[in-house]
Amino acid sequence: MTKQRPQQILVIKLSALGDFILSIASFQAIRAHHREAEITLLTTRPYRAMAEASGCFDSVWIDKRPAWWQFGGWLALKRRMAGGGFARVYDLQRSDRSGGYFRLLPNPKPEWVGTVAGASHRYVMPGGPARHICEREADQLALAGVPRPGLPDLSFLTADLTPLDLPPDYTLLVPGGSAHRPGKRWPAERYAALARHLLDQGSIPLLLGAAAEQAEIAAIAEAAPGARDLCGRTTLEALAALGRGARLAVGNDTGPMHMIAAAGAPSLVLYSMESDPAKIAPRGPVVKTLRRESLGDLTLEEVLTALPGET
């Protein structure tokens, strides 16, 4: 007797880092709901290792995101998706691009849980007050019978932190952010003042960032002797491991803060009017936010008062 092939499920989530982290709880809810299915994730290359480690997916496909004029790339994607035999697709990207993938598939189309017109389970995003992306995603999944996700579980992300020679008490500071949106950054001199305060409290500030933030982080480390410059030394897995052991974390609206907060660090995230925490704040056990028209107007005293655990 031929063994029946398990139900085939496709999940689409392409980018960016913060959005990907916010969707991990949805990945886990989909996996729990479809225990016997084979689930494939369509994503972009930076998130392949994380997706494979999560245990949520049987396979991970990389979307090369062809430009509109790259007909060969579109044809290859169409053939691959059509050949997957998918009974249902969860479009967690909810973008014009991922909606285009629905239109790319031949009829009869699989069940499609997303926002595109013609989807079998179409989620129409409500108007009115801002709603967090996780709440909107939970409503989308509920249309297909998937129970509401809880907080993300990042216990699958592990790293050897021995080379970092960590102190027993440390705080994570994430002073960087998008290079083309400097308005999303709290001034470096105030991060330095915060670092000095933390040192006085017996907690060693660890300064995290990528190569693009190297000069800024070096300036903070110089202004706060005793703070440690870990710029460029932390993988995504290391960010999660650091978050599990941190006294607290303070940072701008940037992807690493999503990882750190979800891993468990009590977190304070700083926002300007360029982004809205009501829609995109990190999710984790303890997450607080501060928002000002301009982060240049946010004082050290306001940040100290808002630190998790402070009154």
* Structural class by helix and strand composition: alpha/beta
Shape: elongated
Distance between the termini: 67 Å
Widest β-sheet, arrangement of strands: 3-2-1-4-5-6
Q: Rg, please?
A: 21 Å
Average pLDDT score: 95
Task: Please provide the count of β strands.
Answer: 12
What is the percent of helical residues? Answer: 25-40%
**What share of the residues does DSSP label as strand, in percent?**
15-25%
- Which H/E pattern describes the elements? EHHEHEHEHEEHEHEHEHEHEHEH
User: In DSSP terms, counting alpha (H) and pi (I) runs of 4 or more, how many helices?
Assistant: 12
The main pleated sheet reads as:
6 strands, parallel
Would you give an account of this structure?
Helices cover 34% and strands 16% of the residues. The protein is built from 12 helices and 12 strands. It has helices spanning 17-22, 24-33, 48-53, 71-83, 96-104, 133-142, 188-200, 214-223, 236-245, 255-263, 277-280, 300-306, and strands at 8-12, 38-43, 59-62, 88-91, 111-114, 121-122, 170-174, 204-207, 228-229, 249-252, 267-271, 287-291. The longest helix is centred in the N-terminal third of the chain and has 13 residues, at 71-83. The mean pLDDT is 95.
